[in-house]
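User: Can you predict the 3D structure for this chain?
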Amino acid sequence: IETLHVYPEIQAALKVIKTCKKGRLKSFKNRFDAIAYARTGCKQSSCSQSVTTATVQDSSNFKAPSTQELIAFKRLIEDGDLEAVKNIVWENPRYLISSGDTPAILQMGSRYNALHIAAKKGKPEMCEFILNTVGDPKFMQWHYGEDKCKTYLNPAEIMQDLYLNTPDKGLNETPLHFAVKFGFKDVVRILVSYSQCIKILPNKYNQLPIELRVCMHAER
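Assistant: Here is the predicted structure, written as structure tokens:
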């Protein structure tokens, strides 16, 4: 599994670089450029041990939703109210994208993003909408502005990757873990249809999504 040494704070990067003699620091204006460099720039320079630090700035012109607004948004996702969710995110992209250029967190304790919630509730159409929206270049341009979207890699592709493969805080599980564990086959089909979906990420107990399916079947 690819490990990207991208850190939002210089202190965190310095701690890592102390353990890497050949490591070096490089700052970027946003997370997208940092990830792009970590994936391509280091390989081009044969620097397999490079540590990259990103200085993340709030580059969106939209106001971050309040905690109460995010809770209400989460309920709409759980209820499968696709039209309401669509209207909200196209009015304010910050419901899906945080100030740190990562998926917005809708449930703080477990750090669930919108896809975690949709997958856990078995909402295939909602899952597809979320992934298609964050993967839409027009949506990213609406959020950042066209000039800020001109980076090494397509920001929409990076955001799709983050939504599909970011684990929750409790069990270190991705939306695919959730869909398999709760037996939502339609959700599973949608998630794995995206090329960025990593099917072999282990959870806290070192279980892959497919192994959760086997365990569930055995328990029955």
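The longest helix spans residues 31-44. Residues 181 and 212 are 6 Å apart (CA to CA).
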